[in-house]
Design brief:
The protein has 2 domains: 7-172, Rossmann fold (3-Layer(aba) Sandwich), CATH 3.40.50; 187-386, Rossmann fold (3-Layer(aba) Sandwich). The chain is 35% helix and 17% strand. The protein is elongated and about 70 Å long. By secondary structure, the chain is of the alpha/beta class.
């Protein structure tokens, strides 16, 4: 994982042109950016290059325009946000290759920053067309990939450019890869993984890969119900994929063979309706769930037992909540276990790496998002990494 070049490997770059792939696929409402987290993640790389005198051209996609120019998906929409976050002047360049870009580079001074147009306006981007990559590269001296969240896509600007220009990992990409290496590449053992979420079907490959990699697999969320049902527990009206019972059994058998302990809840929080603080909410043993009840969280006894498991571990990988955390009181187990993990991380006894959209939201709700060793904001790329897949954008940096 560590055999890639970083910004530390760059020599004198004054006056050189850097193509920097970042994630500017920002959430918008009424034409305004509602969350600038992804911009902030790219700031260290952009400013380090600019302050060293490079001309920095930012490459990014925005939405899914499918190779057409769509005015509502132009990156000109985010320029003001990027300016505000960087505290620098930023030029918008309405092309990604050719004479317009060359002219803009001529206007930019040393340390100047420009944003190129949405890379997905060109059909060759998603096809990873080598000719498009060469055309983009023609205006630059080197390429920096700082968009881990797009690293699972083999596109011209995430993978193709690394074949035609000297390629380096940006600071955010470097931090991500180093954190992931600590979590599953060469982790300190014992290793625990928390995998939650609604459906087993969306995380089958993750579960199959993790049982061969970790010592403790903690399953929560709606997924746990499928495993409980496979074990013969009547889960009432709970969200459950009954057709995946044999798959769940296969995963449990594989875990046994690999010496991985799977933790399923033995007490649960149930209710007759899924609503905030319903009157019917109660805690019971998993074997006492009534036919008209649904399991919506892990119970306090199981949560405490899981906290004890984490105390014996050195590494934790977390993806997905343990219960229906958006709806109180079904956030209790997630918040409690997240706070345990944060405390252990603070003491220095645990390396904790978490990722995925729901996970980030759940950790922030527990007010511990900044207390884990590393929290990845990447969704698809983080999941594919947890599945043990090679990410094309990362592999390209390793050449």
């Amino acid at each position: 994982m560590t055999n890639f070049k970083t910004l530390d490997d760059l020599g004198d770059i004054r006056g050189k042109v850097a193509l920097v792939r970042v994630d500017l696929n920002l959430p918008m409402k009424d034409g305004r950016v509602t969350d600038d987290t992804r911009v902030r993640a790219a700031v260290p790389t952009i400013l380090e290059l600019a302050d060293a005198g490079a001309k920095v051209l930012l490459l990014a996609h925005f939405g899914r325009p499918k190779g057409e120019r769509v005015s509502t998906q132009s990156l000109s929409m985010v320029v003001e946000t990027v300016r505000n976050v960087l505290g620098r002047e930023v030029m918008f360049i309405p092309e990604i290759a050719g004479p317009v870009v060359a002219q803009a580079i001529g206007i930019l001074g040393e340390g100047g920053i420009g944003i190129l147009e949405n890379t997905r306006f060109w059909k060759g981007e998603e096809k990873n067309d080598p000719d498009l990559a060469k055309a983009i590269a023609a205006n630059a001296d080197f390429y920096v990939n700082d968009a881990f969240s797009a690293a699972h896509r083999a596109h011209a600007t995430t993978e193709g450019l690394a074949h035609v220009l000297p390629a380096y990992a940006g600071r955010a990409m470097q931090a991500e890869l180093e954190a992931l290496e600590k979590a599953l590449g060469k982790p300190a053992k014992p290793v625990a993984a928390v995998v939650g979420g609604a459906k087993v079907s969306s995380k089958l490959d993750v579960l199959k890969h993790l049982v061969t990699k970790v010592d403790h697999l903690i399953i929560g969320g709606g997924m746990a119900n499928t495993f409980l049902a496979a074990r013969g527990v009547d889960v009432g009206k709970s969200l459950c994929e009954h057709d995946l019972a044999s798959t769940a059994e296969e995963i449990l058998t594989a875990a046994d063979a690999a010496g991985c302990t799977v933790h399923l809840p033995y007490d649960v929080v149930v209710a007759r309706e899924f609503a905030p603080n319903p009157p019917s909410v109660r805690t019971c043993n998993v074997h006492e769930v009534a036919a008209d009840e649904m399991i919506l969280d892990i119970g306090p006894a199981a949560t405490e037992a899981l906290a004890d498991v984490l105390k014996t571990c050195r590494t934790l990988v977390w993806n997905g909540p343990l219960g229906a955390f958006e709806t109180p009181p079904f956030d209790t187990a997630t918040v409690s276990l997240a706070r345990t993990a944060a405390a252990l991380t603070g003491e220095g006894s645990l390396v904790s790496v978490a990722g995925g959209g729901d996970t980030v939201a759940a950790l922030n709700q527990a007010r511990v998002g900044d207390q884990f060793s590393y929290v990845s904001t990447a969704g698809g790329a983080f999941l594919e990494w947890m599945e043990g897949k090679d990410l094309p954008g990362v592999v390209a940096l390793q050449r």
